[in-house]
C-alpha cells in the first residue's frame, strides 16, 4: 500500500507544530509549574534542550529511515526481536491512557467556547471562575458530552487521513500564535504583571527539589510529544526532511507557546490572589483565562476565538495520539481505517469515565501518564536507540545535514548515556 505523504515541508512542520502545541503548552504548562516559577522554568528549558531535542531528532530519524509507523519501524530495525514490539505496545498504551484525560480537558474547552458569554460577564474574581468550572466538572453528563464531542471529531478526522490534519493546521497555527501574542502583551499591562514576571523569571536555588525535575521532564516529554512514537510516524510521512532543522523549528514554536501561556496566566492570577499558583490546581488555566477576557475590550469575542482555537489545537494533538493505535491496528491486523478508529474511539471513551467522575482520579492519571509513563517510554526508546544508533544512521543524518560531527557526537552521548542515567536517578530518588 502506498504511504500517504505530506504535501510539502512547510505542511509537515505546521502539522508537527500542531501536534506538539496543544493543551500541553496552554493548559498543562502553567499547572505543572506549580509554585516552581523561575526554577521550574530553568529546569524545563534544560529538559527541552538536553532531553527533548535529541529524542525528537532521533524519532524523526527512525521515521525517515524506515518510512513506517512506529511498530513497523521498530520491527524493521530490530528484526523479529521482541524488544521493539514490546516498546511499541507500551507507547500505544501510553497514548491511549493520555487520551482518556486529554479528551476530557479538550471537552472542557469545547464547553468553554459556548460559555464564553457567561464567563466574561459573570466573572469578577477567582472564586466566581472556580464556581463556573466546578459546575461544569461536577456535572457528569455535561463533561461526558464535551469528551464525546471532542473524541468524535478527532476520530472522524483520523478516518479522513493525513491530508485533513495538514489542511487544518496550515491555517490554524499562525492565528493561534497571533492571538497568544496579543494576549501576552495584554497581560503585561495588568496590575499583577510585575509579580507574575518575578515569579516566572526569578528563582532561588535553595528551593530546588527533585519534584521539579520530575515534573519539568514529564512536561517537556508531554509538550513536545516525544518518546511515544508520534514523531516516528510524522517522520515516516516526510520525503525529504532535515531532522535537525525540523526539530529546531518545532521545538522552538512549542516552547514559545508554553512561555506565552505562562506570561498570559500568571499576571492575572497574581492580580486576584496572594496564594501560591499551585493553589490554582489542575484547572488553573480554566480559572485565569476567563479573567483575562473579562478584563479586556471585546472580551467575549476574544474568548470565543481563543477557546475555539484551543479546541482545534488540542484536536490536532489528539489526532496524532489516536493515529498511533489506529495505524497499529491497520498495519498489524489489516483492519480498515474506519473500523480501527471506531474501536479506539470506544476504548478511549470508556477509559475517560473514571476521570470524568473524579477530579482526584484525573489528577492521578495525568500525573502517572505524563510523568512516569512518558519518561518510561523515553527510557525504553533510549535503550533501543543505543542498540541501533548506527543501523538507523542518526549520526550520519545529522552530519550530512549540519556538517558537524560534534553535534552528532553530543546527541549520541545525550541519548545513549545522559538521558537513561537521569531517568534512572529520578526513579531511585523516588524510591528512597
Ligand atoms: N504535545 C501534545 C500537547 O501538548 C500532547 C501530546 C503528547 C501529543 C504526546 C502527542 C503525543 O498537547
Fraction in helix: over 70%
Order of helices and strands: HHHHHHHHHHHHHHHHHHH
- Kindly state the mean pLDDT as a whole number? 90
Please indicate the percent range of residues in DSSP E strands (runs of 2 or more). under 5%
Describe the global form. Answer: globular
Tell me the structural class.
mainly alpha
What are the low-pLDDT stretches, counting only 5+ consecutive residues below 50? Answer: none
Q: Supply Rg.
A: 21 Å
- The total of beta strands comes to 0
Question: What small molecules are bound in this structure?
Answer: phenylalanine
Tell me about the biggest sheet?
none
Q: What is the number of helices?
A: 19
Distance between the termini: 51 Å
3D architecture notes:
The longest helix has 35 residues, at 299-333. The chain has 19 helices and no strands. The termini are far apart. It has 432 residues and is mainly alpha-helical. 53% of the residues are buried. 84% of the residues lie in helices and 0% in strands. The protein has helices spanning 9-20, 23-33, 37-66, 70-78, 82-114, 116-122, 126-138, 140-160, 162-188, 193-201, 210-224, 230-236, 243-272, 284-294, 299-333, 337-357, 359-392, 394-402, 405-431. The mean pLDDT is 90. It is globular. Phenylalanine (PHE) is lined by residues 19-20, 22-25, 98, 222-223, 225, 228, 230, 317, 320-321. The site of phenylalanine has 15 residues, from helix 1, helix 2, helix 11 and helix 15.
Write the layout of secondary structure elements.
Layout: H1 9-20, H2 23-33, H3 37-66, H4 70-78, H5 82-114, H6 116-122, H7 126-138, H8 140-160, H9 162-188, H10 193-201, H11 210-224, H12 230-236, H13 243-272, H14 284-294, H15 299-333, H16 337-357, H17 359-392, H18 394-402, H19 405-431
This protein binds phenylalanine (PHE).
